[in-house]
Amino acid sequence: MAELDIQSNRSVRKYPMRIQAMRVLWAFGKVLFRCTPRPFYAPRRGILRCFGAKVGRKVNMANTANIYFPWNLEIGDWSSIGDRAIIYNLGKVAVGDKATVSQGAHLCAGTHDFTDPSTPLLTLPIEIGSQAWICADAFIAPGVVVGAGAVVGARAVVVKDVEPWSVVAGNPAKLIKKREMKGEA
After folding, report:
1. Residue 184, domain member (yes or no)
2. Which of 8, 60, 133, 181 is deepest in the core (most CB within 10 A)?
3. Which of 14, 112, 177, 178 is flagged as catalytic?
4. Are strands 93-95 and 73-75 parallel, antiparallel or unpaired?
5. Is 112 labeled as catalytic in the residue annotation?
């Protein structure tokens, strides 16, 4: 069995200087983001765009949402990110149009390769399809695609892709049923 190479992991530069500088600047931008009053969505969209996020029209983003790297965020028109949602976007996180990431949900686009003794950082993208709903306190693992129209139940732990227009729940998340719409949206 290989031993963990902690010293090797600590000595590797995780981010280029340009990204480190952007992280320092974002620390100040995040203060502005958080200080905007609750209904002031447009200024928050503007702040995120200044830091490289691709933010669609009429996106509602709570000022308590925690976005790590705005330059790795893409969010479509009429979507929303709820209170205390965590967008840990070391890798790209893309949220489609009319999608909802509810309060306390955690989108985690970073992990480590535990099969390598130096446990290098892996930045795997997450994709949330249009009209999908990530319910309260759900966890979406790195590299997962949640299909269009899918619903991830409250506190679910999603470690595998979710088919479009399906409802999943539990830990680990499992298919509950197909999502059927009663009328036109």
Report:
1. no
2. 133
3. 112
4. parallel
5. yes
